[in-house]
Amino acid sequence: MSQSEPNPDLRAANRARFELELEFVQSLANPYYLHSLAQQGILNQPAFVNFLKYLMYWKEKDYARFILYPHALHHLELLQQAQFRSEIGKDEWREYLNQKQFDHWRTWRDPTRIQAAAALPPDSQPQSATSEAHNIPHTNGS
User: Fold this and answer.
1) What value does the mean pLDDT of the chain take?
2) 112 falls in which pLDDT band (50, 70, 90)?
3) Distances in whole angstroms, Cα of residue 71 to Cα of each of 48, 52, 54, 79
4) CA-wise closest residue to 34 among 23, 21, 47, 25
5) What is d(CA 55, CA 18) in angstroms, rounded to the nearest whole number?
6) Angle at which helices 71-78 and 8-27 pack, to 10 degrees?
7) Do the beta carbons of residue 64 and residue 124 sit within 8 Å?
8) pTM of the full predicted structure?
């Protein structure tokens, strides 16, 4: 084997790692999974926090193109914040995030629904979702 040809074992290992990390990053799109990780205390383990930082490379164009669930990248970014990692363990945060995700999926291609949702009075939102302590930061592309 020449130096320019990659080792087949190394190539297979790299592919397996890529697929495993891709699957994990995509699982972050699920608010119930995030809630479960938080309730088990996994989100506050220093090694896991470092792993989440490492996974930020998935936001780069060359890797993001493989992501089927864009909310996964948004949630990965939110998981970089200690407050979010703590709060997602609360039932009301899980439900709020789940509802926001559902609303996005329901309205993202229909501008009339977006306008109708924006016209709703603020008191129609759940109390915990309107509290300043429960604001979830938004990023572009989510």
Assistant:
1) 82
2) low
3) 20, 15, 18, 12
4) 25
5) 11
6) 80
7) no
8) 0.70
